[in-house]
Write a structure and sequence with these properties.
2 copies of one chain form a homodimer.
Chain A (H helix, E strand, L loop, with lengths): L3 E6 L6 E7 L2 E5 L1 E4 L11 H7 L3 E4 L1 H6 L3 H6 L3 H5 L4 E4 L3 H6 L4 E3 L4 E4 L6 E4 L1 H11 L3 E2 L12 H25 L6 E6 L5 H12 L5 E4 L8 H12 L8 E3 L5 H9 L4 E4 L1 H7 L2 E4 L2 E4 L19 H5 L2 H9 L3 H27 L3 H12 L8
Parallel strand pairs in A: 4-14, 5-6, 10-11, 11-12, 12-13, 13-14
Antiparallel strand pairs in A: 1-2, 2-3, 7-8, 8-9, 15-16
Helix pairs in contact in A: 6-7, 7-8, 8-9, 10-14, 10-15, 11-14, 13-14, 14-15
């Protein structure tokens, strides 16, 4: 069965438009997925996420495994039912969080023992248990357990982690094929290899050979410079099969979405828009701005004049600035809604431009405006 | 002009049903008003408040005066426009907050000097400036500056504060008559007198004689026992004119709403439903419950089976408990929505029962269920 339909390829770049046909509906690509770590998009309700128009969101296996845990998820026959979200869910493998959040971890060929960020208790993830838990979640798209390494790191360590990720992927695939005969819960492979070209090439080649429904690029956007990130994406995407979807994990700034799409990426996720929203930073076509800015004291304008989200249709910058200064939760909600709606619209516009053969023009126009901003946010 | 239409009086108690005809629409009474201290109901959007069905909310003069302040409110031609709420707003006078929140205050016959809870700066409220600021806000119903005393306190202090409140009310009325010729921003009088029957009687009598659009009962629900509160309400309401609306300030627990209505109160406000919601406590017909309760771990039921709010129509106690444990803001939003919807429905049912001549039966039924609860919340 073909889960991905490639509708259009740009002649001038590697940008692609497609359709992901998933169990809970078709998702148009390129797509940005909001992150609902523990079973909600932070500071938002599911109604607000539906109103923006998202139909594919991300859940974090690490967090959901620790809390609420498989007993509760099982009781509710899966995550969709538990959180009452009838659209698509992609879950990560928990690998990245094991390496970035847990105080303690011990990795062996078998899997990884780690301490819980919730209560310090010890847990074990293996390629098999991570597939099992994601099948319990009922994820529409699942990720295999991988070993993430920071950038920069020594070549030999990156190589070892990349190889272990490949071995683990084979075990994950085996478990997936045995447990999910219908293959209605898709398994992607994750390409690793740190910042090393030959490791990325090898990983992309070996991962592709496993003939999975899609492929992720992991271990990027972890602090390396942008040139390194983009060149790794180019190397990997030159090897990944064209007819399968490609997911760049953890990337979600507007400029990176455009550069990723130009290099053939179809899917993105990032906590950035909601975290920035809770900190008072919002997207505009001229770059990110901070709602704390004194110049908005009397502003009668919405966060973004071109946006038709609930926050922009109804409220001024002056009002939202006031709420943020008064430490009102409502300010976090309104800015989070706007930031997500901004990325949704950006991805819709990117897709239209690809279908209309003018993506590169759209990208250049957007970036020339977006980069005008001199305002420092963080 | 008649701002209040008394539709029905119970034969068996002092319960009343009526209509408050305000500048931004008619509000049916008895009514509970959610508190939007700084210009939003905490953790909610205005859309969510509209969806519940409220058309009269409260804003706090003390908070709005300090932040955003009159310059911004003026720029937007009033609070309705600034916060984009096109329904009714009642504002308090700020008096209660001056006495309960400010680190420093000095009261004279002229008014009160107090320190800001925001930045410690010094400010001055007089009966006149408080009317001026509420006219700047464009409040549909305004309160006059009053002097609140804690319970218990000495008779002589309570008497002095009650008398000063009366003198201030006369000044407030004069300013209101001069500044608001159309009288489309209604001014209520506030009855004080602490826990002393003769002071309450005197205050009610003298306040009534000023022939204002409505009357508030202040200085109750500040820690005194319930019998004291109810007997003070009875004394005051036996004197206040029947044809004017009566507002019991700061009261919002279901049992108190019922007892207040039975004693002839038409309007209530309280931060309790939203504060409790942010703390994980929710209303049910069997009393308040805590979402932290282990017994809800696998609960497939909504917070309240009889409630049709967004939270109850869509989510289980198990899910909301999980979100609360994970410290998700969304949990606060969902429980706040439910608590407000619970009180809205309670007031609607109270009103229907008055119109149908069975309020006392409804009240007894509700309280016999509500008081069954043995669960400790706070």
């Amino acid at each position: 069965m073909n889960y991905f339909e490639l509708e259009k390829k740009s002649n001038k770049s590697n940008a692609r438009a497609g359709k992901l046909k998933l169990k809970h509906g078709t998702t148009l690509t390129p797509v940005f997925m909001p992150v609902g770590t523990t079973g909600t998009i932070k500071a938002c309700t599911w109604q607000q996420i539906k109103d923006i128009g998202f139909n594919l969101v991300l859940g974090n296996t690490y967090h959901l495994y620790l809390r609420p845990g498989s007993e509760i998820i099982n009781h509710f026959n899966g995550l969709h039912n538990f959180i009452n979200w009838d659209r698509n869910i992609l879950t990560d493998s928990g690998g990245f969080q094991v390496f970035s959040l847990s105080d303690f971890r011990k990795i062996t060929d078998d899997g990884v023992i780690f301490s819980s960020i919730v209560d310090g208790s010890k847990h074990f993830f293996s390629p098999e248990t991570v597939i099992d838990f994601q099948l319990t979640l009922g994820s529409d798209i699942m990720m295999p357990l991988d070993e993430c390494t920071p950038i920069p790191i020594e070549y030999s360590i990156a190589q070892k982690a990349m190889n272990r990720t490949l071995i683990w992927l084979k075990r994950a695939k085996k478990r997936w094929e045995e447990s999910n005969k219908d293959k209605d819960h898709l398994l992607f492979g994750i390409v690793q290899g740190n910042r090393f070209e030959d490791l990325r090439k090898y990983s992309a080649q070996m991962t592709s050979e496993l003939d999975l429904p899609g492929y992720s690029i992991g271990g990027l956007s972890v602090g390396e410079d942008k040139d390194t990130m983009f060149s790794m994406i180019e190397i990997v995407n030159s090897i990944l099969p064209e007819e399968k979807p490609r997911y760049l994990m953890g990337v979600g700034k507007p400029e990176d979405l455009l550069e990723g799409v130009a290099r053939g990426i179809d899917m993105f996720d990032c906590i950035f828009p909601t975290r920035a929203g809770r900190n008072g930073s919002f997207f505009t076509k001229n770059g990110m701005k901070s709602i704390k800015n004194l110049s908005y004291k009397f502003s009668e304008e919405p966060l973004d004049k071109d946006c038709d989200c609930y926050a922009c249709k109804n409220f001024t910058k002056s009002y939202i600035r006031h709420l943020f200064r008064a430490k009102e939760i409502t300010a976090m909600t309104l800015i989070s809604i706007h930031n997500l709606a901004f990325l949704k619209k950006l991805m819709d516009n990117i897709r239209s431009s690809i279908l209309n053969d003018n993506f590169e023009e759209f990208k250049n126009d957007f970036l020339s405006n977006y980069r005008q901003s001199k305002e420092e946010i963080f």
